[in-house]
Give the backbone structure.
Amino acid sequence: MNRNSRIPTHESRVTADDSRLRDAVVQVLAEAKKSGATAAEAGVNISQGLSVTVRLGEVETVEHTRDKGMGVTVYFGQRTGSASTTDFSEQALRETVRAACTIAKYTAEDDCAGLADPERLAKAIPDLDLHHPWNPGMEQAIELARAAESAARGLDTRIANSEGGSLSMHEGLEVYGNTHGFLGAVAATRHSLSVSVIAQDDSGMQRDHWYTVARDAGLLESPQTVGLQAARRSLRRLRSRKLSTRECPILYEAPIATSLLSHFVSAVRGSSLYRQASFLLDSLGKPIFADFVRIHEQPHLKGAQGSAAFDSEGVATQPRDLIRDGILQGYVLDSYSARKLKMQTTGNAGGVHNLTIDPGQDDLAALMKRMHTGLLVTELIGFGVNTITGDYSRGAAGFWVENGEIQYPVEEITIAGNLKDMFRRIAAVGSDVDTRGNIRSGSILIESMTVAGS
Amino acid sequence: MSEGMLTLARQSLLEPAGLGESDLTRLMGQLMSGRVDYGDLYFQYSRHESWSLEEGKVKSGSHSIEQGVGVRAVAGEKTGFAYSDEILLPALLEAAGAARAIVQQGAQARVPAAFRDAQGRASAAGGRMPGATGEAGRQLYRPDDPLASLPDDAKVKLLERVEKEARAQDPRVKQVMASLASEHEVVLVVRSDGVIAGDVRPLVRLNVTVIVEQNGRRESGSHGGGGRLAYDYFNQEDRALSYAREAVRQALVNLEAVETPAGTMTVVLGPGWPGILLHEAIGHGLEGDFNRKGTSAFAGRVGERVASEQCTVVDDGTIPGRRGSLNVDDEGTTTQKTVLIENGILKGYMQDTLNARLMGVAPTGNGRRESYAHLPMPRMTNTYMLPGKFDPKEIIASVDKGLYAVNFGGGQVDITSGKFVFSASEAYLIENGKITRPVKGATLIGNGPDVLTRVSMVGSDLQLDPGVGTCGKEGQSVPVGVGQPTLRIDGLTVGGTQS
């Protein structure tokens, strides 16, 4: 939505709990020590939210969410056990610590088990601008969702049906502490507006959607923009055809190009490497991507979805390159997998932070011109990706492109290849960066893959 | 439903919280004041544990407890929902107030008289009330806590034996990862129409994944199983060790796999887990919510032919001990065996109470939710195709050139366009009626409303999957089962790389 529709910030119930949650973490760690643990770590989170869905102009659901949880891991020397609970009573916290300690009696000694090294823990915790509580009230939330859906439905009479427009607001607080003395808290918000509509003509039905998400509700796209985008995306898929089986260039539209980078992350994650379960074993210093590609982490971007000052072990995060000039510069490690590999943690317990592939100069239209003839993929379905071998085969829908122009929509086809080749054969990255998620990418053009169809 | 289950559920969920009949009445009064058609309270307690082994050692284990109450108010097509993770009267009254707020305006006042009449008798009748669904004595699984069904050291030993068995199969086995998990769930549903139902649900699962290596090439294989059972299931009939051997066998087959052909061809699917085809191609498209809203490619097609005459497909929540089975669904409706497709004709949809009411049909016991913090919706239980007349060998022998796929990873469907995928993890070429070479895993894609019309042969060898399926819908995961006999499909697109 635009800035004019913003409602003044309401009092935050979540942050009022900050000291209570810190106390809970301290209590759990003390309890673990009392039970004989040589070390322990605990995380506590609390969140609340509201989500409304309007379908065909009428309210369909209003959901109030309110969650909390506490998780603890105890270490008895090199043995470990974990437990969690949603009950914050003193008795429940004590019992949860006891459950973790019981498990640690039966697990095996593991040289690499343990807390993060103390010198790697975050010393200062910068404000990353992640917390913007927003409470527009139920009536206005419903109006915003309705406005977005009606913008979609009003575009074209072929928008015949709808799965609705939804607005959701979420606010959470997480506190993490360990017996090295680290105690850190992060409050964050996440608000989103989405629309999913169905276009229909004599050829059948097609559904597509659009969404906007932000830490600060003032930065959301307007209901009009979201609705129109959803409607246009559904309409353009009507009269989809199958393609015949062929080899051709593939252009991944930005919102799904991010999936290629998530496959890359899976392959350079410590847990995949020490288990020998990756097609990128022993690849440090080797060319993995096309020579012009740079992929880096930006953990301290203000207000972004993947920003964090410390990871889920309390380790300080830092900006770094994973790929420079196509060459692999580092893995994605937590303390455990780093010790297994005789390396240092990269501050990635819990995942990467705003992983970004540097954009090129071309927007999507220019990338289509550059591809000339090939397949623009706008949707992928299924899970046909093998991280051990790199083999890749997924269901796809999109558009057949000739002379740089969309010819017709296509569906019921697959695209297949091997990620090792696909990464090396990236021909261009677009300037149309999708910044809505933790992985940021423009559209990605791959020289050639196999399309299976009729 | 079994009175025993209801009594257990009351004891676990209401008594520790000090909640009595009068509190439930007060809560329901709070929820139903205003213009609410229907309301329910879903009390849930669950305990979960998992143990995992890698590099020969059980390195980690975890335990979790979740409990809470979901409160729902429905008026027409509107639903208000709130929940509390504290089973305490003030928190529940607040949740009830929040849930009903949305449906207070603009809807008809239709608080059912049944609840008011029946509420006093609820405790006396022990759950069998006027209008209550339920079948006395229904017990598809034992209401025991599976976490306590084996001492912790025996859980560790079980995983260690699985690991040794896998390694003993072949020197090319380089990694073995195994996990053992179980869940003990107690639910109690209290509805505004007077129905009160309880269920106590065990669930266990054992999984093995191995990585093998030969001349620098690495491949993996996975197998597992489980159900609404106790841990001793894995020690019976050599099950746990057979999972290990099966995982190694699959991985070794994949070491020899060549490029998969790309394009449309005849596909023979093996029995059991390949029934994921039915789950994706037709199952989701036959869920009541999508059909009530008209967003499914199957909407308005009851009575039409959607499969070949040889195909009869059911969703059956009543198979004892199965992963997808339930005594009552998460809305307190007794589960049943629902015929979805009979001899190729679409017979009906899977329903929860909301969609059944809005479509003017009976609920089918398919109202399920991930937890108290999620809204129920129509979901599958165990979905499978009944056996046909063909010997599976005869089916393979009938194919000149095609693909034989026997193991699968996940699948997905776009219910509006009807396009679905499922990804093979073990497949072979069929040449001149014989299975020849293994080929690499590939995604198969088809169109739900017509794929079963191209089923030309149905085998006599119905199998259900070993108990590993989890289905995701709108962010909610629930355990499910699938099954089928060997099937021949004349024309399915195979996403290989060999064009």
In short: The two ends of chain A are 43 Å apart (CA to CA). Chain A touches chain B through 77 residues (CB under 8 Å). Chain A has a mean pLDDT of 95.
